[in-house]
Amino acid sequence: MKKLLTAFLFSVPFMAQAQTYIIEAEQPRQTIEHFGASDAWSMQNIGLWPEESQQQQIADWLFSLDCDVSGQPRGIGLSLWRFNLGAGSAEQGDSSFINRDTRTECFLQPDGTYDWSRQAGQVKFLKMARERGVPKILAFLNSPPVYFTQNGLATNTGRGGTLNLRPECYDQFAQFMAEAVSGLEREHGIHIDYLSPVNEPDGHWNWQGPKQEGSPATNAEIAEVARKTGQAFVERGLTTQIMVNESSDLRCLLGVYKTSWERGNAIASFWSKDSTLTYLGDTPNVSRLMLAHSYWTNTPMNYMKKIRLRLRDRLKKYGVKFWQSEICIMSNDEEIGGGSGYDFSMKTALYVARIIHHDLCYANAESWSWWRACGGNYKDGLIRVFDRRHQARDSRLLWALGNYSRFVRPGAVRYEVSSKQKENPYGVMVSAYQNQDGSWVVVAINYGDAPSPIDLQLNCAPARQWQQYRTSDAEGETLKPIGTCDGHTMLAPRSITTFVSSNP
Q: Taking CA 209 as the corner, what is the angle to CA 208 and CA 214, rounded to the nearest 5 degrees?
């Protein structure tokens, strides 16, 4: 009966008045640089699986822009791949005080030489990403190499809120990052476009083992790392851009949140000339932008929008751009049951699509990245892996990100979308983009349980044909091509539909 009702709804004239969404072609917003995900911590294992078929399938799902003979996309076409540059906890074994699955190898050895055969699984996926056309690579560190840290570990073990780096090792740390960037290109043919030296320095968690690599850092310490690294890159003629910093919480960019003043107000600290100790606006190779993670700020619903509008205004004040560089589902995301228990359905996919929409449309994020590309029984992976069986399974979350990443390509510009109806985060949300080749892309989320008729219009331009790609819980609907329309169509319940118009 349900199938018959659905067929009836889609085969008769619209029973409700379509809501009109107008793409305001004279109101450009931010340029979209890329969509991405990271290799931590799974690829160090997956890249070493004995049979390559599942590795190739995972790489296709993540990176491919190809289609099969029916026009079905083979992958979501990520345009940024985040590579976790390891600190050496794996070589320490159990004495690292870090869980086995989150330890990382380090290219640097105790005697100061480099072993470029390390991180082999991750390097393999770097190469597969490049082979499939991923244009940008970002390397990030959770900790300095263990040889440089104050406690000899890659985890802070509750030692305080300062950087776990010996004062005399700032130059050595910078030279390590410069050599890692140089060596990956020299030894493996992988160019690193961006490097993020300090990850989540302002988090209110304690970095206590056994868990994962990590270190807090004050803004002054981050600024010193950035300056030393910029100097090292200039000396070697490296063009790699230095990213500052990967804040753990949007609230730490705007003020002091569950931490000390030395680790708060990051935007003003790094980009106001009045902050003479921490100003980075004149530092070589340091991009004038902030990277931050959207954890913990996605509920309640009115707050999710409010905090992003505040962030947009603060960034505009200082002339700074913004990349949302990491997120997954956490315990406070109660609407979908928190992070535990992997979910293959649209429940998580729609929730994340709503976050993407808010980050892009209200915070003006120019880049958007999910946390782990692959994960276990937790809502932190686009792909669910069964490591002991060397198997992987895709999810609607993967393809939901693809509704953006596959079609909104690097250099696209987001445009304002207007409608007489107030946007409903539990209903329809629409965003629009124009790629560099002139094609228009519209992503429409229908969070609701009922079909929703819409009418897409491009102001000051004639009507056009749109190719539609839909992701839903229906069988086979993972970026499935569902035909063309003139902009007047019905959004399926609990679905994400991307409309692509080839004519400019």
A: 65
Q: Is the pLDDT of residue 158 over 80?
A: no
What's the Cα-to-Cα distance from 263 to each of 228, 244, 353, 384, rounded to whole Å? 19, 13, 30, 35
Cα 290 to chain centroid, rounded: 14
Q: What sign does the dihedral 422-333-202-356 (CA atoms) show?
A: negative
C-beta separation of 414 from 29 below 8 A: yes
- What is the enclosing helix (H) or strand (E) of 24? strand 19-32
| Region 18-34 average pLDDT | 97
Per-residue pLDDT of 128-143, as tens digits, reads: 999 999 999 999 999 9
Partners of residue 240 on adjacent β-strands: none
Three-state secondary-structure class, residue 270: helix
Residue in the block written with tokens 């060596």: 183
User: What CA–CA distance (Å, rounded) separates 271 from 261?
Assistant: 16
Residue closest to 349 by CA, chosen among 394, 285, 414: 394
Alpha helices of 151-291 — where are they, by DSSP H?
170-188, 219-236, 250-254, 266-271
- Span between the terminal Cα atoms of the chain, in Å: 42
The DSSP bridge partners found for residue 22 are 418, 457
